[in-house]
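Last lecture ended with a question: if I hand you only a sequence, what can you say about the shape of the protein? Today we answer it with a concrete record. The protein is NME/NM23 nucleoside diphosphate kinase 6. Below, first the input exactly as provided, then the predicted structure, then a couple of comments.
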Amino acid sequence: MTSILRSPQALQLTLALIKPDAVAHPLILEAVHQQILSNKFLIVRTRELQWKLEDCRRFYREHEVGQSEPISLPTKMPSNFGGH
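The predicted structure:
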């Protein structure tokens, strides 16, 4: 039997970003992880980041190309986002 991890054609990577509100509560974070696993995704790596507003803008800039209005995701973050 061939493992899915040994078949490069079958492996796709998906990035999941979890909002700071969820990360702040261990039970909610655990529920998010369980939901990811129950949908047959594997968590291969985790990393906790604290972005500044400019980091967030740079990350979402690629989604603004061809949009009639710029995406306002950075302005919808909690007020303490990037304040550290």
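Comments.
1. The two ends are 49 Å apart (CA to CA).
2. Residues 17-44 form one domain.
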